[in-house]
Amino acid sequence: MHQLLLAGVIVNAVCSALMMFATSILNPASLYRVVLWLMGTLSAPSILSLIGIGSCLLIAILLLLRESQALNLLAVGEDAARSLGVDSDRVQRTVFLVSAVLTGAVVSVSGMIGFVGMVVPHLVRILCGADHRLLLPVSALGGGILLMVADTVARSVVAPAEIPVGVITALIGGPFFIYLLMTRKYRFFA
Amino acid sequence: MSQQASASPMCFPLPAFEVRQLSFRYDAVRIRPFGDRSAWVINGMGFTVRQGEIIGVIGPNGSGKSSLLKLLAKLVRPQEGTIRLFGAELGALSRESISRQVAYMPQDLSSDFPFSVLDMVLMGRFSYRRGGLWNLVGWERREDLAVVEEAMAQTDVTHLANRMVDTLSAGERQRVLLARALAQVPRVLMLDEPTAHLDLNHQLDVCRILQRVHEQLQMTVLLVSHDINLASQYCDRILVMKQGAVVCIGSPQEVIHPRVLTEVYGCQVLVDEHPETGLPRVSLPGQDRHQTVAVSVRL
User: A78, B7, B114, B250 — which has fewest CB within 10 A?
Assistant: First the structure.
């Protein structure tokens, strides 16, 4: 698992470098919008982009739900899952690809809004168990609800000005995640 | 007593497993121009598992017993040789169709996620699930629940259904694993050290359940164990392995012999008869009294 964490850190570093390069060559007019996007904002998505991520979301949810029982089995160990009939290579490929595309689609519209995806699934797992057939749809709804609440807060605390919603989710999510890490006994990155 | 098992002819009924010239090593990716013999985990094995028998696999640590089970469950692919499952080439069968015929019970159940015992046993029904648009998620059907209920009753874990698996004792975990294997309704049951961490009472439990299942369902059982006495008591035939090859295969009386065991394990052993069943029983040679005293004094 350390390998996965390290890989994440490295990909993050490379992508930040690319992002810095991209922002450095921008003209000042579009720079402001890019900075807003980087902070995460739900302010003005166009109808077209909403339709775009809406359809992405629908297809992704259907594909992931189809693999949800296989994900349950993989959570108990890859050898066990394969002996029970899971084509683990295919399932892993599908799930990685679908979630990567979905994340890309969503982030392209909303910008970087952190911690929702890290906190909500763990919270849902505490509330309604580890069964991915329930976990996936409930997490999707729960993530939406959390984001809506955070956005409401972001728009109202310093109204008429607006805080980037990513600030709110990180402020809620960071401490909560540390609390989870300290109290829950199951491993998070397993 | 020699390596003649692979020569057995195809007979009726079809053998559960027919293994020929099987060779396997883990570093399959790296190509070595001059084959390093020591790297082979399984080295030219050949044997037949008859339908409806209990066959035990024994051998020293690192002799390839667990790897053999993984090969038979198609968890790893061999570099050479063929495995036939009821006459069909194992490599050509899909994972789902294998898991409807072969249940592989791993050494221990590891789960970092809070699954209940019932969830865990229901996982045995995975290869029977029917998807489709109306049940995309793959919820269990009534017949799945009936099979699972039966399996749980057989292994005596019905009362644990709502417990979380990480709160179970080793004996209970082993029975849950067995229930999950039975929920697959397999024709062959493969077990990797089913009694490894169990006390005497639970060892007996697991063995009795195994025997009952074997008798009631005519299930073929393939059992890897370090416990030669257990293999002797419950197995129709025993396969002795050393360094990835078959040393001999035969009934407990034929195989459990001081000469064979000394050759395989490299230490002196005593073989006598079990007081009740008359089957061979293995003991290690007794300690020298004086040595024991000396040790205890030093302590």
Answer: B7
